[in-house]
Amino acid sequence: MLCMMTVHKLSAGDGYKYYTHEVASGDALRANDRELGDYYTVDGMPPGQWIGTAPEALGLSGEVSEAHMHTLFGQRFTPIETMEVKEMLHGLPEFDDYMDAYNTAYEAYKAHAAERAWEILTRAEDGLSQQEIAHQMGEIGHPMTQKTVSNYLTRYAAVGNKITSAQAEHNGENTVQNEGKALTKEEFIERYRLTPGEITAAHNAGKRAHNKLYREQTASQLHPEYGAGTDFTKRVSEEIARHRRMHDGAEPTKAQMQEIRFRVGGELYRAERGIEPTHAQLRQFIAENSKKHQTAIAGFDLVFTPSKSVSIAWGLGDKQLRKDIEAAHEHAIQDVVRHLESNVVMTRRGHNGVRQIDTKSGIIGTKFRHYDSRAGDPNLHDHVVIANRVEGADDKWSSIDGRTLYQYGVECSELYNSKVQEYVTNLTGLQFEPRMQTGKPIHEIVGISDEMVRAFSSRRGDISAEIDKVKEKFVADNGYEPSEKQLIKLAQQATLATRPAKSEARSLEDLHTEWVAAAHALSEHGVHVPVDHQLAESLKNASLNYEQSVLQGARQEAYSTPLEAHTDAVLSRLEEARSTWRRTHINAETTRYVRELGLNETQDRGLISSIRQSAVEDSLPLHIKDTRLTPREYLRKDGTSQYQRIDSELFTSERVLAAEHKILDAASRAVIPASTVDFFELAAQKRRTELAVQGHTLPAGQEAMARAFATSDKFLVVGIGAAGAGKTSSTRLAVDAIEASGNRVIGMAPTAAAADVMRSEMRINADTVDKFLTDWQSGKASVDVRPGDVLLVDEAGMISTPKMEKILTLAQERGALVRALGDYRQLSAVGSGGALRLVDREIGAVHLDELFRFKNPEEAAATLSLREPPLVGTDKPFEWYKDNNRVVAGDADAMIEDVFRKYSADVNAGKQSIMIASTNETVTRLNDLAQAHAIEHGQVSTGAGAVALHNSSRAHVGDTIVTRKNARRLIVNSGQDFVKNGDLWRVTDLHDDGRITAQHTGHGGKVTLPAGYVQESVELGYAATIHRAQGSTVDTAHALVDASTDRAGAYVALTRGRENNQLYVTLANGEKRDDVLDRITGAYERDLTVHESVDQLRAEHRNIASLIAQHEDISELAVQKVMEPYLMEGMSRVKEHPVRDKDSGQIIDHTPANGVEDAKAVLASPAWPALAHDMGEAYRKGIDPAALVERAYSRRPLEASDQGAEAKDYAAVMQWRVEKLNVNAQKVHEMAERPLSYLSDEHLARLVDQAAQRTQPMADRLEISDAWWFTNPYALVKTDELMAMRSRTFKALQANENDGGLYEKIKENLGDMDAEVQRRRWEISGDQRELEQIIRGERPRSGHNFTLHKVLSEEQKVRQHLIPTIDLPETKHTEQIQNGISGHTLDRFWENHPNLNNTRLGTILHSRSREIGQLAQVRGAQLAAEKPEWVKQLGDVPANKKLARHWYRVAAETEALRDKYNIASSEPEAVPTKLRTQAKPHEAPTTAEARGQFLHAQVINTHKRSTMASHKRTPRTETENVHLAQARDTLQRTREAQREGQPTADMVMAMLSPEQRKKLQQLRASRAAGGRSQEKGQPSVEQRITAQRTQRETAKQKLARLKAQAQKQLNESKQKPQRGQDEVQQYLERTRAMDQPAPQQQRGPHL
Which one, 321, 783, 1441, 1614, has the greatest CB density within 10 A? Predict the structure, then answer.
């Protein structure tokens, strides 16, 4: 059994009850009539313990009560202060009070139930009929029917409740019958036993008492996770409303209500899960959906479990050994928690958590210890439940960054493993030894044998006896034999009955006694198991001998081994597991490695640290050092930027990088082809003829792949085909052509089963990759590979990169070629994989896209949708399966039964079928069910007994088993085969010593499997895991998946069947079918190659959306810097605060104000950033922030909040006041329709003076009851708009009634609106109303009552009350472009603020905005080359440079918008409608909506420009776009290299020369010989990969030129013979002409 630490999420809600009811009771459901404390009566173990440093800092100690658990994990609360956390956790009921409330309510219900039983039983004893009893019970206040009475009597009898002399007393182990004595009522009530239903009701009564007490003392910061309801509750409400309409408003009766709920529940169940529910399933579904499902993460459950031998030694040893082992377990857990607090647990800040910050006070953890497993075996383990709330370095409480917690899970698990082993050795003297289990070393205590471990692992009952029992009961109850469907249900019952069931919680002493008895029983059956002090002495003696004989030598060897050898061993392990790794992987692997050497941190800390550090130094860093300027406030305590995750470091090794380079070089290197074109054409023609006879044609895709495999001049050719694409048929054609050319094809596969398929279907010699490589490297066996041979690697996607590199090395050494075939969309290699994807991405591969396996063409298309996301459109891979009833969902038991039932029906119909599951546990359950069903039908005989298998199952004669390990020495089928991993067998005989004789289900060969092999490597074989199913083809497949299944696994599972592939989805509590399918859909792409990782890291580093988010976050810090002087100025203006009468609210006095000191307190408060943000928003809208702060501060002192309680956060108080004032100020300033609002203050003052001079003062006859009416909230809003605002606010109130904080704010605003409406209607005079309407612009000035002077004066008076405006600094319009980016995409308001000129913060913002502008051009050019579907809406890239830059900018800004809102790349619309549609058309668009609208217009405009430009000048070609993208990328890399202090691109290009390559090799050799640190100036991995790509591209272009030149010469050579004949003819004619002398010469003199 593995020793480990696992991490699980805990959702908010009642999930914590698992710990207080089940886990806290030893993983058993706590009996409802037992207190939580009853389970911890041994050794003073409390119900729960606090763990971590935060509880101590918060003053928490003692027991963890259920109230604590409910507060921490049953609710959610907003980020708060430490003082509030203390008050919340300390203001809870004491544990004893909590349990007293539970017990009081429980006992009260029990007394009530006993009295009811007394009344029923006494009447039954008197001979009354059940109908008469029901009537009389109704008369005394217990109304019930005759059927209810009957049920009660049956239940009473079942638990032994009687009032006659047959009543029994139980006293310990003795049972005393009180013959002839009738019990009194008091005696009956005292001895009454609750029925199961009454126990549940009593428990619920206790829980209600819990909740009542909790509500009375709960903290005000808690907000229950209630919601508006589920689809079920909404549908039920609609049905109830329909009932009322149909029945004149009458409410449905209880029966009608039940009918509605069951009808709606049934409809939703069938719609969601695709099957008809049973009554029990429907009731559970209704219960689950009657309340809102919890989604918030309340905490994390860390489960610490030592190895099985530790639990056995602890469980069977004496008290001292138990004490020491528990202490070791405890110390190891504490070490891990300290490591988590110091290095792992972080929290996040900024919008969407853009920054990752340190924590301050550690974690709040609760720890529950448990002693046994579900089967009752010794299983010491602890649940450490960490609250998802930590205090950040900024003193704010918020959630844990779960990403790092999961990332460091393996490291922490290995730390626990090493520490528990170290402490056990130190405290007890016991030693550990490694034992191989499933290919991995598991460390067990020396002296505890594997046989003892297996004996104390979970045991199963006799399934055959249980089958007989349930079958007999069925016949007795129903009077007839069960049908086939009923037999399956009975088999399910039998398997569940034989599965280990959690026993009732017992003390450790009771458990120890039981375990000792079990050990004695095992000893009697030949398994010697010492106990108590004998076990302790035996283990100590064994450990002493092991230490002397093994450990001392191993430690000496470890110290004598060079450090480089240790480092190489650690790196080799990492390389086998993955292509890239993080520091946490190095730490984990080093810890695992040194543990196997017998080293520990206490004695060997120096050597271990050296190995760990050396492994880091010898790893090649891939991560990009973040050298961007960052504010000091946003640096972590170690000096790193908060914008970079603590686990951002990524490494690889020279070997992995070299292996990838070798694979790529092999795929691009030219060699002599394996076959000629002529031979291939002959083979292809032969194949066409054969297919024509059968009425078929040779598919073009298969022919193309076969042609490439046979005739390509590349050393390595990769073929990629989807499941069912005919890869085997294609390779058979290639094999024929190659063999016809005189060469051989040798098959290699990752599994022996796949190699066997190659031998049978392709008719070639084949074996496993491991066998070939082992024989080749060891030299123990000759590897027959000759020049010209072709190594055909099948299922290459499952082969790791190092192994693929070795295959290429073998082929190169022997002069052979390599052809790899597979599909990287299916399950990939266990280890550093991705070779297929790497070649396809970098070089290119041959693809098979046409599918032939599936009889239904629509299903074939559906599998392609599941295989990978579409390039265009939404990614909904399961839609076809849902539309065609191929998907059902439900709980695990229902799905397992459904899978087996439909599988059985297919098998009975003569079809070849398979059951597939995503987990080993589910496969085991399917196997058990299939075995039980086979026993029922007599296909499996239990008469010969059973043999225990690997996973605690038992095999009988007739069972189907599967072998899980290659055993080449177990020869079968006359030496033609051997026992292979994945082979299926039928058991024909069982042997007393544990051996099994079995017959192969394929070729029929028989073999006897040794007992040791059976115990370790044999399982029932009715069902298969997804991994084992890959490569098989059947008629029908039934696949069971859950939320942990990834997309590749689902793709494999749904592509095994030719005729039908059915998907069954297991739903956990609260899960929905479509939600699980969506998670499977998104679980895509896994282990990346180094090349892919480098590209991904660079893309993430340059991601414009992320950089914009960081710029916005830094701008928030700039807001604080700019607003700080305004805060100081505004608060310092206030000299005194008014003191108001509590009843009337009138000002009765004033108290001095200390604005300067209060301002300092505000700046130091946690809510200051939020206050600064609100002040900044007001400032941007023209409101003077100093005046706003002054008005808010002057209302009352900060020592008291608005509710009169003592304020804890001055900034929060100020923010609340500022927010209210700001809202009112905005409404006033936005009233542009107010008649006199357009006048400036100066102009208004002059008009008032003029009006005063011209107008004779009127008699004071106007009734103005409220001279300061305009100070009321919303007083200046027009009445019609106010009513519209009230309507919208009321709707918002209803929509947010479950969000406590927001609900109160909306409610207060609505109250202000209602107060203003009330005032206008009933509280003012007619003159007052007229004046207000004139000022608001609702009516013109009539001149009868109000003079111009009066109106102008009133406007002036209103303005004096308003918060003054302020002149803003000059800023660019948002649509203007600055530094290559628009203001809509990058807000530069604060960056350009004068107060930030020549400051570090301003410099940082300017630097980052410039980089964003540069990256926009780079990314735009890349988008032009990549051409995703949505980019087509921009048109072609114009040839004009200015227009091209515009095109690049728009493309980059659009992608940044899409990235921000997670728009899939397959979405064809550049700016989707939802990103540019206004939610409130009657109001101004939000910033996000304005950005979407702007970019949508830019896209349209860019397309128009592109179209117009294309008429004048041809747009850039694809090749030009690619070259320009590369050029811009190179330029950007130069900038980044200069900033990061790395070699420039010029050095990278220089690397391509032979001299530079030679220098690089010398650097590598120097580093390998002694240099640990990287040489200064040595190119990074990214630069080396870039250089290699450039080199390959150059070689490719050169080869293309040579081929073109050769083709030209060939064409010329074909014309050369004709040209030569013409020249010869011309020469002969000239010669003849020369032989005939000219006339004049003949006549000349002869010289």
Answer: 321
Q: pLDDT confidence of 820, banded at 50, 70, 90? A: very high
CB 756 within 8 A of CB 980: yes
Helices (H) and strands (E) in the chain, counts: 60, 41
Q: What is the DSSP letter of 1287?
A: H
Residue type, 689: T
| Sheet strands side by side (includes 1018-1020) | 1006-1009, 996-1000, 984-990, 960-963, 1018-1020
pLDDT, tens digit, 9 for 90 and up, residues 527-545: 788 889 999 999 999 999 9
Any bridge partners for residue 887, and if so which? 1063
Three-state SS for 432?
strand
Residue 720's contacts (CB-CB under 8 Å, 6 or more residues apart) are 822, 823, 824, 836, 840, 845, 846, 847, 848
- Round to whole Å and give the CA distance between 1525 and 1517: 12
* Helix residue spans in 349-408 (DSSP H): 402-407
Output phi, psi for 1620, to 5 deg.
-65, -40
Instruction: Return d(Cα 673, Cα 715) in angstroms, integer.
Output: 8
- Which has more pLDDT, 82 or 30? 82
pLDDT higher than 70, residue 850: yes
Give the tens place of pLDDT for each residue, 759-780. Answer: 888 889 999 998 899 889 888 7
Cβ atoms 1103, 1095 nearer than 8 A: no
What's the token pair of residue 1239?
A: 């006048």
Q: Is residue 1329 classed as helix, strand or coil in its secondary structure?
A: helix
Q: Which two tokens stand for residue 1624?
A: 């010869």
**Beta bridge partner(s), residue 848:** 721
* H-assigned helices in 815-948: 835-842, 857-867, 879-883, 892-908, 920-936
Exposure string for 942-953, b = 16+ CB within 10 A, e = fewer: beeebbbbbbeb
Measure the CA–CA gap between 1588 and 1552, rounded to whole angstroms: 8
Query: With contact defined as beta carbons under 8 Å apart, do 1320 and 1279 qualify?
Result: yes
By residue count, the chain amounts to 1647
Comparing CA positions, the residue from 1528, 1532, 1530 lying closest to residue 1447 is 1528
Long-range contacts: 125-128, Cβ < 8 Å, 24+? 125/163, 125/164
CA distance 648 to 155: 63
pLDDT at 36 over 70: no
Give the per-residue pLDDT at 169.
Answer: 43
Q: Which residue has the tokens 């995703």?
A: 1428
The four Cα atoms 349, 354, 357, 361 give a dihedral, to 10 degrees, of 40
pLDDT in tens, 1466-1494: 888 999 999 998 887 777 788 888 999 99
Token pair belonging to 52: 């971590």
What's the alpha-carbon Rg for the chain, to the nearest Å? Answer: 41
pLDDT of 1315 reads: 82
Q: Provide the pLDDT for residue 1565.
A: 59
Highest mean pLDDT of the ranges 487-496, 1392-1401, 1617-1626? 1392-1401
Q: How far apart are CA 1272 and CA 1227, in angstroms?
A: 12
Angle at 875 (CA atoms; ends 869, 879), nearest 5 degrees: 115
Three-state secondary structure call for residue 767: strand
Written in H, E and C, the secondary structure of 1216-1241 is HHHHHHHHHHHHHHCCCCCCCCCCCH
How buried is 1591 (Cβ within 10 angstroms: 0-12 exposed, 13-18 middle, 19+ buried)? middle
Stronger pLDDT, 1084 or 1476, i.e. the higher one: 1476
Task: Report pTM.
Answer: 0.77
DSSP string, 1574-1607: PPTTPPPHHHHHHHHHHHHHHHHHHHHHHHHHHH
> First vs last Cα of the chain: how many Å apart?
119
In the predicted model, what is the mean pLDDT of the chain?
80
Q: Which two tokens stand for residue 1102?
A: 């340059």
Phi, psi at 1479, each rounded to 5°: -70, -30
